[in-house]
Amino acid sequence: MKDQTLRALIVDDSEDDALLIIRELKKSGYNSFYKRVETAGDMKKALQENQWDIILCDYKMPQFSAPAAIAVLKEAHLDIPIIIISGTIGEETAVECMRLGAYDYLMKTNLSRLCPAVSRELREAEIRNNKKKAEEALGQSEEKYRNILENIEDGYYEVDLAGNFTFFNNSMCIILGYSRDEMIGMNNRQFTDEENAKKLFEVFNRVYRTGEPAKEFDWQIIRKDGAKKYIEASVSLQKDSSDKIRGFRGIVHDITERKLAEGTLQKTLESLKKAVGTTIQVLVSALESRDPYTAGHQFRVAHLACAIAEEMGIVKDKIDGIFLAGSIHDIGKISVPTEILTKPTKLTELEFCLIKEHPQTGYEMLKHVESPWPLAQIVHQHHERIDGSGYPNHLKGNEIIIEARILAVADVVEAMASHRPYRPSLGIEPALGEIRKNKGILFDEAVADACLRLFTEKGYTLP
User: What HEC string does 331-377 produce?
Assistant: First the structure.
């Protein structure tokens, strides 16, 4: 082996014996820096002034002994391997030294075991030192994150599989209104009602079964003072070193203010929807007084458009907007002379141009109406076509919002299937044939398919 520096503290009253030990270490490649001491005071001083890899100690000296040297080392709180080297030592004495803290013992008359023993103890000391460093680093890391958890505003919790708290930060105490002592071992059923406890169980059970974390689920708690609060929480599995599930953990934050604000907003929205609905009815009545055919047409188009939207899986809020927009999609015709609207013969080109102005006119009438839905935009685009051949702006494909694409199909089907002043009804089959022939060309393919399914598979009929 290559020369290895070894810092050896030799506790012996004989310089000759110390030199014999150093010579033996040299044979095995140890380039030793050593110091010999023979009293407790000298040993204490040496331990304070230098770092040592190994301590090689005679058992009995005039002013010192191996047990006393072991005691000095313990008092210094140093982890340095100590090996007893003696000329005369019995087995019982050697065992006692090992019990006190020595790592090995050997006879001065047989130093052949010295280097293997030193090598072994150096390896063991390195392992212990690395383990200690890792434990200290882990402890520091745990302390660091514990401090972080204690200082964040959100609550942090850990519970066992039964839902009993095993760890939590101070913010969790503040959210629930209980002291730390009161919360130790507390079960979630103690601060929830039956309905929320069931909801909580279902979430935790799903996480347990699937292993997938749950994020941002909200539920209601009952604080110690009886106040009800809404909280939003996450939950994930907590496992031990053998990957066995031992509980759950997650983050909690109080969303009571947000919930109250959402409630207020919802009331405001409902009020706004009601106001918009009233405005719509006024507009419908105004148009109906001039053209009863158009008014009936708008109602039937709105009904069919909503059915198509439901078939497509459109969310309810959008469907509400589609119904209102459908109910007034021809409101722009209020500016068209009544004699043109009710003309029993074919329109001239000029008259048709006047009719084609109604999407733009409707948009102008509605663009300043406060509404949760894009009513003006839907009305503006309901005569646009997928291939750009529609009017007034020749929009194509996804340039046309989905509500307007739905309304376009419903509008054509109702117009062809219903009676008009200038012609009798063409019937539902020709209307559906028109949609089938032009789906993907004039009409959105998904919208057309949903419309065709309603009539051919779902038994839908126009009201």
Answer: HHHHHCCHHHHCCCCCCCHHHHHHHCCHHHHHHHHHCCCCCCCCHHH
The residues facing 228 across adjacent strands are 222
Residue entry with tokens 């158009």: 294
Q: What is the largest CA-CA distance in the chain?
A: 136
Q: Which residue matches tokens 């406060």?
A: 370
- Tell me the chain's radius of gyration from C-alpha atoms: 44
- Contact 31/74 with Cβ under 8 angstroms? no
Q: Is 43 left (phi over 0), alpha (psi -120 to 50) or beta?
A: alpha
Range of the domain at 352: 260-456
pLDDT for res 142: 63
Mapped onto helix, strand or coil, the DSSP state of residue 412 is helix
Dihedral angle over CA of 215, 218, 219, 225, nearest 10: 110
- pLDDT, tens only, 342-368: 677 777 888 888 888 989 998 998 888
Burial class (CB in 10 A: 0-12, 13-18, 19+), 424: exposed
Kindly state whether residue 147 falls inside one of the protein's structural domains. Answer: no
| Beta bridge partners of residue 165, listed in sequence order | 159
CA distance 17 to 8: 14
Q: In the numeric block, which tokens belong to residue 100?
A: 């006190």
**Alpha-carbon distance 375 to 156, whole Å?**
45
- From the list 395, 406, 335, the residue with the least C-alpha distance to 373 is 406
pLDDT in tens, 139-160: 666 666 666 566 667 888 889 9
* 367-400 per-residue burial string, b: 16 or more CB within 10 A, e: under 16: eeeebebbbbbbbbbbbbbbeeebebeebeeeeb
Do 423 and 322 fall within a single domain?
yes
Name the nearest CA neighbour of 18 among 9, 31, 30: 9
Q: Look at the chain and report how many structural domains it folds into.
A: 3
Do 385 and 236 share a structural domain? no
Least confident of 101-105, 304-308, 378-382: 101-105
